[in-house]
Amino acid sequence: MLLCLFLPQLPGKKDLFIEADLMSPLDRIANVSILKQHDVDKLYKVENKPIVSTSDQLCFLVRPRITNMKYVADIVNADKATGRSRKYKIIFSPQKFYTCELVLEEEGIYGDVTCDEWAFYLLPLDDDLLSMELPEFFRDYFLEGDQRWISTVARALQLLNSLFGPFTNTYGIGRCAKMVYEVWRELVEESEGDSQARRPEISHVFLMDRDVDYVTALCSQVVYEGLVDDTFRIKCGSVDFGPDVTSSDRSFKVLLNAQDKVFSEIRNEHFSNVFGFLSQKARNLQTQYDRRRGMDIKQIKNFVSQELKGLKQEHRLLSLHIGACESIMKKKTKQDFQELLKTEHSLLEGFDIRESTSYIEEHIDRQVSPSESLRLMCLLSVTENGLIPKDYRSLKTQYLQSYGPEHLLTFHNLKRIGLLTEQAPGETLTAVESKVSKLVTDRAAGKLTDAFNSLARKSNFRGISKKLGLIPRVDGEYNLKVPRDMAYVFSGAYVPLSCKIIEQVLERQGWLGLEEVVRLLNGNEFAPTEPVTEENPARETQRVILAVFLGGCTFSEISALRFLGKEKGYKFIFLTTAITSSARLMDAMLEAKV
């Protein structure tokens, strides 16, 4: 591991200070014993309080943030004031920014520290899922307009291109996606020839901005993996199941990936199917255990040495997932989950908007949860292309009265990012569409003013939904046991917009025929000038698609595209800046500063 090359540069015992964001990713690839082998004596979390380390060598593993530089500067300057002499090393992950060096210089410690980069771009969370573990990407780019992570994503893409490329068919939509693509192309040209001779293992790449589809990220998840994430919060591919799940006084940390035989079979299932599967699995396991009764000594010996350990492991995992399901059921029943889903479906379909607004008002008045109330308001706004002024003022007032005036800043942030907006008096969908159209046709206007930028982020969800058929029309009840399309990830009520766009572009080998949809999505689409088709038709059924989500990807979207892959013969690989969810989106807004 590259990190272990930097640690010996401080020979002898040293203390390692790790930023909280990097603890879980580091835990996935280097446990404490590996760090101890490289003379790391004690581990500390980077936090805003005086340090207690007595070591003569301090190493800091941090993100390239100004606050972290000031944290290190305070330690170094405090040591200088007391005459304490130590060695200091800063390891930036995934890369070092010039701003950080500038702050170190301003603080007067640039000559006292040594700096290195740990180019840790990609963390494999599963066989088909890569994460950059940059949750701040969403807030930094889409709210603050900070473009510093663009080159980081481009480098990650180039790393994959050098290993599995060359990538010839690259599509995308969104301003951020376009910038990443352009920076990545520059990197490709600089390293021309590295991967040109090889046969590409990835046939198509698709880049998408999170703000192209806020609706999917705001909806409640109902596939098993999504519900586990919403309920227990999956971190770096693992989850902590507490005593309510384990039926003991202990908590268990469980790695959720394809290696878990139980989880791999239920992760993409609609929650209504999961209990039935787990019951059948329990009966099958019992049958396998019962086989021992008719065995002779030799057969029992073989059973114990070859099968028993695997069965016990499967039994333990089965018990945990049954416990997780029971815990989810208790919490969702308490929250009246069905009523919540009914409101969401009404918002998606554009029916009973008054009734849905009343439900949101009641949700706020009962003070159920600040982030949940905010999520429902955002979903109403994004699906309705902004709230009418009367509703906006009313909901905002009620929210501030229920949860406190400190959330005024949150409303400011939500408006800036386009999640919770107010319609201009007399403004209709058609009027907004025509204004956006004028902006989109002006290709020279790369950087828009705040006012125009806010206008460009209007959602136009109703028009897009109609054009792409996002709301399935089914006679009778939607069959969740044998789903017919990707809408099953939202109980048959809605096909995720992001996934539908990818499906359509792959089918058409470009944006031809989707011009109106692109216009409603505010443009910034791109495609290869000459798409390269697979020469061997036998390989066509095994097309590998790299889906890149900038600003986060939900487990619902992953499940939907896995389903599409099975149906159409694609194999999807996911690269995301981080796993996201409605709660994470709202937390980013609640925590954000101006």
TrEMBL record:
GO biological process: protein transport; vesicle-mediated transport
Topology versus the membrane: Peripheral membrane protein
Pfam family for this entry, one: Sec1
A GO cellular component annotation in the UniProt record: lysosomal membrane
Keyword Protein transport: yes
Keyword list, A-Z: Protein transport, Transport
Cell compartments where the protein resides: Late endosome membrane; Lysosome membrane
InterPro entries to which the protein is assigned, alphabetical: Sec-1-like_dom1, Sec-1-like_dom3a, Sec1-like, Sec1-like_dom2, Sec1-like_sf, VPS33_dom3b
Main subcellular localisation: membrane
Family: Belongs to the STXBP/unc-18/SEC1 family.
Protein name per the record: Vacuolar protein sorting-associated protein 33B
